[in-house]
Amino acid sequence: MLYILVVLCAVLARFFLRAESKEEYVKAVILKGLASLCFVVIGLMCSPGSHVSNLIVAGLIIGSTADVMLNLRMVFKEKGQLIFLIGIVVFLTGHIMYLAAVLPLCSYKLVCIISGIVLTALLMVWIFSRITAKPAFKIFGVVYIGAIMLLNCVAIGNVAASGSAFNIVFAIGAALFLVSDIVLILNTFGSEFRQSLRNTNISLYYAGQLLIAFSLTLLA
């Protein structure tokens, strides 16, 4: 059943990209919501019901909600910027759930926090040199990327401290999520939108969320 859901997620994501490229935005929102529902169901099925797993499932649910919100900006274009910003805040909340789940497991909290701050600063300098965006979007971007970068640093720190299967799979999922967001930012606010980058963004995103959901099967 889990593998059927993975295939279904991939198929729905592919149809979503096709609908979006044809500017069938209502259809695209529905397909994206259904694709995201797949990783939520996987998370629920894999969860052992512990505090850590409950926080991760909450992150998956919040992420699926943000997925729909981000694409609603194309349906309600007059409120597009506001909907986009709200969607980013919702996604940020999902990252906070993930962080709340794995931070207590971290043996190198201070090192991870400092690394997250430094890497966020370096990454945002690089991103800002390649995009054009309003100040509000830049502020939201710094906070958002900062949160997911910190999540990645903590996840990698957990792998370094204990190379458990859960830590490894979760860290790979978080890393794919980060790369997906970087691609999304560059493609959305860069000089030219490219469908190939959109395909990459969505593929990496769903791969990341699916790995995070599957990591719950590996929790001791």
Blueprint of the fold:
Elements: H1 2-21, H2 25-46, H3 51-75, H4 80-102, H5 109-128, H6 135-161, H7 165-189, H8 195-214
Helix pairs in contact: 1-2, 1-8, 2-3, 2-8, 3-4, 4-6, 5-6, 6-7, 7-8
Structural account:
- The protein is mainly alpha-helical and 220 residues long.
- The protein has one domain.
- Helix content is 83%, strand content 0%.
- It is built from 8 helices and no strands.
- Helix 3 (51-75) runs antiparallel to helix 4 and helix 5 packs antiparallel against helix 6.
- The longest helix has 27 residues, at 135-161.
Quote the distance from N terminus to C terminus. 22 Å
Mean of residue pLDDT? 93
Give the helix/strand class. mainly alpha
Give the uncertain stretches in residue-range form.
Answer: none
Shape: globular
How many strand elements?
0
Strand content: under 5%
What number of structural domains do the residues give?
A: 1
Helix content: over 70%
DSSP summary: helix tally: 8
What order do the SSEs take from the amino end to the carboxyl end, as H and E?
HHHHHHHH
Question: Tell me about the biggest sheet?
Answer: none
User: Whole-number radius of gyration?
Assistant: 17 Å
